[in-house]
Amino acid sequence: MSFKNFLPLLSLLLAACNSQTKIEPAIFNADMQTFSNYESVHTKHLQWDAEIDFTNKKVKGIATWSFENTKQVKQICFDSYALQIKKITVQGKEVKYHETELKTNFGSGLSIPIELTDTIVSIEYETGENAIALQWLSPEQTAGKKMPYLFTQCESIHARSLMPCQDIPANRITYNAKVKVPSGMMAVMSARNPTEKNAEGRYSFEMEIPVPTYLIALAAGDILYKAIDERCGVYTEPSMLEKAATELSDIPNMMKAAEELGGPYRWGKYDVLIAPPSFPIGGMENPRLTFATPTIIAGDKSLVSLIAHEMAHSWSGNLVTNATWNDLWLNEGFTTYFERRIMEKISGVEYNDMLWELGYQDMQSDFDALGITHEDTRLRIELKGRHPEEGFSNIPYEKGAVFIRMLEEGVGRKKFDAYLSKYFQTNAFKPMTTEKCLAFMDEHLFDGDKTLNEKLKVHQWVFEPGLPDNCIHKLPVRFTQVDITRKQFEKDGLTQKMVVSNWTTHEWLQFLRKIQHPLSTEKMKSLDDAFHLTGIGNSEIADEWYKLAISSNYEAAFPEMEKFLASVGRKKFLEPLYAEMMKTPSGKKMAAKIFEQSKQNYHPQTAKKIGKMLQG
Fold first, then answer.
1. I need a labelling partner for 389 at 20 to 30 A (CA). Which of 7, 89, 478, 512 fits?
2. Which pTM was predicted?
3. Residue range 456-479: mean pLDDT, rounded
4. Do 564 and 536 reside in the same domain of the chain?
């Protein structure tokens, strides 16, 4: 063959070679907040091998994914956030890959070429400095002060900073993990867990039930376990173990009440990890192992409704999962309603009515903040191009719950309970959209009766802003007496007339939320002297008291408030207090000072949000 004839052939060969190795950048799906192409090729199982490096604050891992190429595409795409990719192999052979530039709030897309017969991809990587799912704690930031501690928080789209994954709730995976931690520590995950430490610091985990990636969870530190019964127990630091186990001793009764409503519990064990104080939220419903804030350990079981909420997620959320974050109300509205039904069974109707009222007040505060006509006061919201966290408010929780409560009263509890159980059992381990949920409701709750659907204003509840006029709102009997006591105190300032010995946390919250803001220094001191509210160990009461102290400029409470803000990392408490301080020039200075001293104790997501608040 002449050289002249060889050139065209060489060009064709090079073109063919280039076409085989070309990798297309992952495309960001703004509707789903993901770079993954899970609808074409989806992950099914994860084998995760990880070492926890506390010295450098990194997780060094190998994520080996089994996948199914349903659309016969030529690459698989993952979500990644600030990960340092070391090597990628497909079917054991190293391949080139493409990573997009970091997109603020959403991370990067990772594209990996695959052949049509491939089923395994393995990614070796390290987590980056800005891994938003991880919080690293020094020994001084823990309860025991002996060992460092790590915990993860992957909801909503933070799993991508722990490992490369298809980070979308519509895709479910099973997983196995092997995790290495320093000697003397225990590691636990949202899986089958050890109950004792081992000398080598090597732990193996299995989650054989498919879960979305936001429910992958890990904690490591000075952790011990105490059983409550044969399928429930508590993990926490040694100094808190006995207290936590006593506080949560009603978990078996909660489980019994939950199963009566939702059907059999399908996850095997149900344990609770009481996390360090910096845990940023109340609780996280990680399957088999709820992560919970230590602020629920009040000594009188008055705050354990949070555990009822996370347990209820074992049905609404973990079993039947919102397909997208636009449908968050399906997880949280059903769960908040379910929580209240558990608490009604455990503590009675009068007690539960107080929980409903406080939740209603929380919802109204968000209506006030957003505006009653704001689009985000709909249940089914639009988050295209927005971070899912923008959808997390009291609206999906409390408006969703009162919607479900309205349905129950509209059709009767017996019929509603049969529908609810059928909803969970029929749709188990499936992604759920608002449209599918309402279609199921039409068929199994309304029996196709469009007149009843319209009478109950279902469309208005779900798709329109604000609160329909058929919302159920009843003042609890026990709050009636609280309001009488409050009004009398506002009139005469005499604490001697206040009969509060039988008040629960909830009565105190009603009193402090509804009392005049601001109060005079004399009345503040009178309350403080009588009931020792400054420095109180109950975080819910403390938060309301310190808000009142800020608005009333009650300086005697400020030193203890600073300690509270330095030791508690829960956003529910931090954000209102900083917001209250930001209302005055002197408060702004105090907020800046406290934040600078305390921010290292906050979860990175929390510190970022409060930092923005203070800049505004």
1. 512
2. 0.95
3. 97
4. yes
